[in-house]
Amino acid sequence: MESNINMAEFVQEFQDDVWEDASVEILENMHIQDIGTILSRVLPDEAMRILQMLPRKRWVEVFPYIALARQTELLELLRVKDGRYILTHLYPDDRTALLEQLTPEQLESFLRLMSTEDVKLALKQLGYPDESVGRLMNTHFVAVKAHWTLKHALEYIRAHSLRGETVNTIFVIDRERRLKDAIELRDFLLGDLSDRVESIMEDSAISIGASEDREEAVRLIKHYDIEVLPVVDHHQVLLGIVTVDDVLDVAEQEATEDFHKMGSVGVLDLSLSDASPALLYRKRVGWLVLLTFVNIFSGAGIAYFEATIEAVIVLVFFLPLIVASSGNAGAQSATLMVRALATGDVQSRDWLRMWGKELLVSVGLGVTMALAISWIGVWRGGADVGLVVALAMFCVVIMGSMVGMLLPFILSRFKLDPATASAPLITSIADVVGIIIYFTIATTFLL
Amino acid sequence: MESNINMAEFVQEFQDDVWEDASVEILENMHIQDIGTILSRVLPDEAMRILQMLPRKRWVEVFPYIALARQTELLELLRVKDGRYILTHLYPDDRTALLEQLTPEQLESFLRLMSTEDVKLALKQLGYPDESVGRLMNTHFVAVKAHWTLKHALEYIRAHSLRGETVNTIFVIDRERRLKDAIELRDFLLGDLSDRVESIMEDSAISIGASEDREEAVRLIKHYDIEVLPVVDHHQVLLGIVTVDDVLDVAEQEATEDFHKMGSVGVLDLSLSDASPALLYRKRVGWLVLLTFVNIFSGAGIAYFEATIEAVIVLVFFLPLIVASSGNAGAQSATLMVRALATGDVQSRDWLRMWGKELLVSVGLGVTMALAISWIGVWRGGADVGLVVALAMFCVVIMGSMVGMLLPFILSRFKLDPATASAPLITSIADVVGIIIYFTIATTFLL
């Protein structure tokens, strides 16, 4: 036991480009997931060396746990017949994950290694939209017919549960392969063997369409606490299954996407450590330039109030404080809303209730911040400047919070991703409006 | 099937305070998870009315799917003997989740409803640290002894697998209850019934300590693709189990925490829709005020360069553009790093490699942004202003990116949470440094 934990720690911290200690004996005692991690981290040639220490049968087990980019590299380094062996024996969903990130040329050469039937299956799965359930599902599954006897069904299951996939839930289909029910293996075992399957059906299966968003699969599996979710087409024909460990990965990827969007970074298809500088540049430059255009309005706002600034130069001292507080308050409320909308904690129709709550919160925050800054205002510029900065702070904190709270709702209303209301975007918008509010108040009271 | 999907949609959009249609028949055909959702959303009295339509046996099934705050309300509304029934029959992990969010007074009155043995168990679980595996684990599990025969073990499992918990993985312990292995039920069924359990052991179980962070449980379950993770104490004694659906919820909560931190919001123990305005105020005001102190340095920076500003007032126009770009670039790289550190994609020892990559990316971004702004500079203030703003933009974009990239690493180095390097904090720091860089360059070239 202990050796396993140490091994896991060893693997997690494994950083070397080569793995001197690799030997057939050590590999035999390692978990395939750990071998996969190491094969992803060492240099390509080293990975080949380690892979070849493994019996070919284990390649197929290890492969899904290797980083996708490395899987491709290995397949290109392996002899044709070894590549064919792996592509033939991978689970369809693991194969689809590998194929979907290839260049068209690579895809063509890989498809040439596969049987016609596998190619047809793979192309069908790749035909489903990006990030859909169809791309994610495993098409290897066991289903029994409703008119069979339990005895026949159990024999069929025993004969067809290949490669150690655990079968706890048994899917029942009719003669047209339409999903009729999902029955626990336990209930099967408790029934009379001569009964027909349909006699123990409850017609209570939760299912999902293949073209639906994979986030919906996460939601269903989480909500209904199920281990295997059946995937169907428009006619309820059973196409595949999605398991809880699939959605664990999806949930992490989706959260990462939302994170990146909140930081105004485009969606990375690769992990940060695999992404090239050029890719990172492309994913960041668009938003940076776009936000500059928003900030030009801030500049224009300041230029418009040049006379006020020249008359009361101390106002510039408070500019970053006031403007930044507005942006910070906005970033806070945008973050809360975007995440709550993503997890389903809040729905877009809740906007009015959330708006009321946000108003209360932001008035409280505005009063606190105004009190905090008024002292500095009085100290730096006298009572009238103190009043102006306090009033401006009160207004911009409320305004920033409102922008941050409402923009995600507006985006989701127009079927856009609420996470587009990123912290930098909210900050930039709050800047523009904050500058205008601040100098308008200053001009009114001080000139 | 279809009716189920519509029901799920109905429940997701369910918003009413009362549920007129509630009837014994409808409730009978609903999934317990959906009933739980509705009981969480209607008014407390209404929830009581619906609950009482259910047979008492179903209460225990539905209860874990009701929002925690509502569970408490219902227990307080129910008659003592009904409350006792629920608290006695809830799974220990569900009960712990309920008990850990009570006030001391509530806890005392609830503990009084429970048997001495249950109280002992509950207090033991509450004794583990917040967000530890011990709080999360289920202490109802079935384990067999290594020296038993397979026949005896299977009989024991059949007799002790209560309340429909599926048993796919069987934990093997020795005479001192120390975990020896985790064996698939399948391997059990294939073995010879007269063999001893130890004869089919492989000693390959992955386990976790009860006081470890629950995030580590998520990592292990995800990495090793396991459905049930055994929890042990310092002597490897088996204490409980954590299942993949538990960690699915934990992973979501942890991602939400990181989100909130990235937006400079304190950790909310409640969902956003349950949180009161007062709680939200408290979770936000600290960071807002703290960030103001950082921004005072921005103000001071501007005040320090007052002479430069008065001499070349057009510089103020570019102030928000340059300063905001620095903050935006910093927010981008901080977001990328914080998330990569959280998912384990990047470890803190990778900082040098990531720094090199970030330098390349930020030089590229800096050149692009400098070119973009130089035109506006020339147009608004002539060639020399164009040069100054371009140079300043180049420097601040690189500087902002460096701050955003390095701060999460520094925090993780000092065992602090990298997510503390929130977008608003990075923006505020980048503001201060950006202002100093900008006006230093301007003073050098223009005065």
TrEMBL record, chains A, B:
InterPro entries: CBS_dom, CBS_dom_sf, Mg_transptr_MgtE_intracell_dom, MgtE_N_sf, MgtE_transporter, SLC41_membr_dom, SLC41_membr_dom_sf. Residues 201-257 form the CBS domain. It is a multi-pass membrane protein. GO terms for cellular component: plasma membrane. Keywords: CBS domain, Cell membrane, Magnesium, Membrane, Metal-binding, Transmembrane, Transmembrane helix, Transport. GO terms for molecular function: magnesium ion transmembrane transporter activity; metal ion binding. Belongs to the SLC41A transporter family. Acts as a magnesium transporter. PANTHER family: MAGNESIUM TRANSPORTER MGTE. This is Magnesium transporter MgtE. It comes from Desulfurispira natronophila.
